[in-house]
Amino acid sequence: MEPNLSTTELFYDLLDLTEEEQQHYLSELKREDPELYHKIQPLLEADSQESGQLTELFGFHAQQAVSDEVCFSHLHIDKYKVQDEIGRGGMGIVYAAERCDDTFDQQLAIKFIQPSLTQVLGKAFLFQEAQLLARLNHPYVAKVFDGGEHQGYVYVVMEMVKGQTLREVINSQPLSIQQRLKLFVQICQAISHAHQNQILHADIKPENVLIDEVLAPKVLDFNITQKQHLSPSATSPILAFSEDFASPEQKEGTYLTQQSDVYSLGKLLLFMIGEQPAYSDLKAVINKATQPLADKRYASVIELMTDIECILTKRPVSLKAHQPFYVAKKLLQRRPVSSALSLSLLLCAMVFSAALIQKNHQLEQEKTIAENMMFEVTSLLFHSKGDVNKYMSVQNMLELTRRRILSNPDLPQHIKQKMLLAMMTPVPDKSRVTEDCHPACTQITTEGKEQ
């Protein structure tokens, strides 16, 4: 570090060092400049104490910082009558309440934010965040109605949600995979609505989702300590999240985007369906949503929700839409009866077409053979008119034809068999033919013999 620094400059320079580097520098400073060392020491102790408080309030294993002695039960605060306590945590205490101004009969919940958190973030910031939450108007988001301050506690008046946490429902009720996915889609709808209003949840976990008696969710406890971008001058980011569901960038304390909530939703989906998803599509969706790098995840909650809806309706998910066989499989799963009928008709048409083509080919072949045989028989009869063959019997002609048929390599075997069978029919006897002839034919024959 540069010499002759002021106490304030030296203090901020020390904050940039690691703890080991700070100890080494302070040891050297104590030996070389004891006066400056004693001036800087109280500032470092105060900063250490403040950091310890922040860790206690917002850290990973944050302890409950609200004193058990604080109790607002049965008090009248503004127009609300506070009833029994229903929850307590690092952010504050939640009580049941009701309106007592004789205008509306409302059952409400009031969250009192602890004063130490108010001191760190400021009342204006808390009211600003509460105002943003009040703009949310969605059936699956716990509605924020009002806010105020009482005895140093900033309070937020919210919708009273009766039901069990998502963890209790998953562990106690035998929900089908379809019921779980439909419930997850509704949670995604709530988070997407918040994103459309420029609000991150930043603390999605089963305890922050209540399920009513009709299995409808209510998302609550938006993390108002988280902003999309941390201030560049911030020296210690405020950490308020659940380790099992927080994104890597949230654990590192860097700025958050919608992909941070996408990561938490992916982890929530894995919790809801079990450690080993039964469907390959679910595995692909969860892997996509929980990628370590934000730009490798779904770009928005809507994209994640759309793929889950595709799984519910047996449609192709976006991650596999480029695979033809996968798309065809999804079509068969989605419309089994109509797909089976269409496939049967297609197969019948293919079989009929193949049979028709084969039959046409066979007819063409037989036509060609018949033409060739006619040519053979015609040639044989023509040549039999000569002097040499004029006394050739029909039997000899048939025998000659049979030999020519057998020697013809172009004739199919089944055609040869049919033709040979036809040629085996016995020839009528000559005398019998004469007897069957007309008497005039007999007279002509007799005259011929006498001559």
TrEMBL record:
Keywords of this protein's UniProt record, alphabetized?
A: ATP-binding, Kinase, Nucleotide-binding, Serine/threonine-protein kinase, Transferase
Any idea which positions bind ATP? K111
Classification via CDD domains: STKc_PknB_like
Protein kinase domain boundaries? 80-326
Q: Which GO terms describe its molecular function?
A: ATP binding; protein serine/threonine kinase activity
InterPro entries the UniProt entry points to: Kinase-like_dom_sf (IPR011009), Prot_kinase_dom (IPR000719), Protein_kinase_ATP_BS (IPR017441), Ser/Thr_kinase_AS (IPR008271)
Q: Which PROSITE patterns match?
A: PROTEIN_KINASE_ATP (PS00107), PROTEIN_KINASE_DOM (PS50011), PROTEIN_KINASE_ST (PS00108)
Pfam name, any one? Pkinase
Keyword match Kinase: yes
What's the protein name?
A: Serine/threonine protein kinase
